[in-house]
Amino acid sequence: MGVDDTLRRIFMRNTLRVEARARDVSRGGWDNFRTSILFQKLALFAIEGHTVSENTDVKLTFEANPLSTPEVCRRMKEKACGLDLHKKFILAAIIDQGGTTVEHLFSRAQADLLALRDWALFHGCEVVACESTSDYWIQVYDLFAGKIPVIVGNARDIKAISHKKTDTIDAVWIAKLALHDLIPASRIPDPETRDLRSLVRLRKFLVEKRTDLKNQVHHILDSCLFRLSTVFSDIFGKSGMLILTGVTEGKAVEEILATLPVRTRKRSEEIRSTLETTLPELALIRMQCCLNLIMELDTQIETLMQRVHQCVARQTRLLQILMSVPGIGYIAAVTLIAEIGNFTNFSSGDKLASWVGLVPTVNQSADHLRMGAITKRGSRTARWILVEIAQAAVRTRSSRFHAFFTRKVGVIGFSKAIVAVARKIVTILWHLVVNDEEYEEAEGNRKQEIRIPKAKQPKFLTLNEMLRILAEANIFLKQSDPHGGG
How far apart are the C-alpha atoms of 205 and 199, rounded to whole Å? Predict the structure, then answer.
C-alpha cells in the first residue's frame, strides 16, 4: 500500500473520532489534511522507511470530514528533482520511488543552466522543486517553463528535520518532498508583472534613500541653528531648493532673495533673518554632497516612473477602479498592481487578504482557540502600501473607513485598527476588481478626482547602448573601494 493510501485510511479513522467531539469546526477534508504539518510528519516517517499503519496514534487539531470524492488521492510521481540554489552554483538531486538518488553540481552560467535542464529531462523528472531564495529561482523557473512543472516553495515550508545540514541533504530533501506532493507551491506572477514589480520596488528603494538624504540635510541645518524649516513647510520645494543651492554656492542674501518667486518674496524678512545665520564650511560641504545626490535621485526616479507609465498604459480601467477608493493615488494603485498582479487568481477577498498576510495567526486545539498577530506572509511591499493607504483613508472624515476606524481604535488601539482598515480595503478591492465596479461612498460625499499620467513614447536602447551599459557595470563591479576596509 502506498504512502498516500495508508495516510488516507489513517485520516478517515481519525476524522470520525474527532468529528464526534468537534462538529462545529469548519469543514476541511483530505485537501486540508494533505497541507497540514501532521500529514508531512507522517509522510516523512514513511519516506524514511518507518512503519505507518492504520493503528498509528494520531491526534488531529482541526476538523476534517470523511472523503466524499474519488479525486482526493493524487497520482504518485516516479521521479522528482530538488534544487539547492546558491549565488554561484546549483546543486541538483533526483530521487525516484525506490529511493535511488543522483546528484550533480551546476554553475549559474548560461551553458550550465541549459545543461541542468537537459540533465533533468534526460532522467525523466516529472517535477522540479526549489526554494524561493532571493531572486535566484527566477532563472530556473523560466528555464523549465513549458518543459517540466516547477514548484517554487517558501523556505519556511521546506525545513528539513535532520541533525545535519549540507547542500546535498537540502537538495535531496526538496526532491523527496516534491516526489510526494508535500511542497505548497508559491504563487508566481507572469513575466510582465515581475518586470513591473522590479521597477516599483526599485523606485521605492530610491525614494527611501532620498528621504534619508533629506533627513540628513535637516539634521545639518538644525545643528547649525539654520531654521529654514520654520519658514517653509517643505524646504525641498522650489523656493527651498533655490535657497539651499544659493547658500552652498556662497551667494549673498540679496542675490538669493532675487531668485525667489514673487509670492515667496512677500516673506523676505523671515527669510533674511534665517539667511543671516552663518554655516560652517564643513556643514556646507556635507549639505552640497547631499543636495547633489538628491537631485540625481530625482532624475533617476523620474526615469523609472516613465517606464512604469508604459507598463501600466494598457491597464487604465484597473487603475480607475483602484484609485476610486479613498486613500489610493496613482503610486499606490501601481504598487498594488505590481505586487498582486491578477486579482482574479484569488477565489475571494479573504483569500487575497490571507496571501498578503493581513489575517491573524490561528492556534486552535480542542475547544481552545487563540487568535494572534497577523501572519505577515506574502508580499511585504503590498502589506506596507495597504497600511499606508489605510492611514490616508481614515483621514477622510466623511468616508466609511473613518467611521470604521473610529469604532475600532477605542477597543483595539491605533495600530491594530489601522491594520483592520487595511484588511477591509484589500477585501473591498477584490470585490471591485472582480465585478468591474468603482468604489462609491454614501450619497452627498464628493467623489475623489482620478488623474492618470499619460505615458510618453518609449525610448528603446540600441544594441550599442546596451553593450556600453554592461561594460560600464562590469568595470564598476571589478573596481575595489579605495576607502573600504578590504
Answer: 10
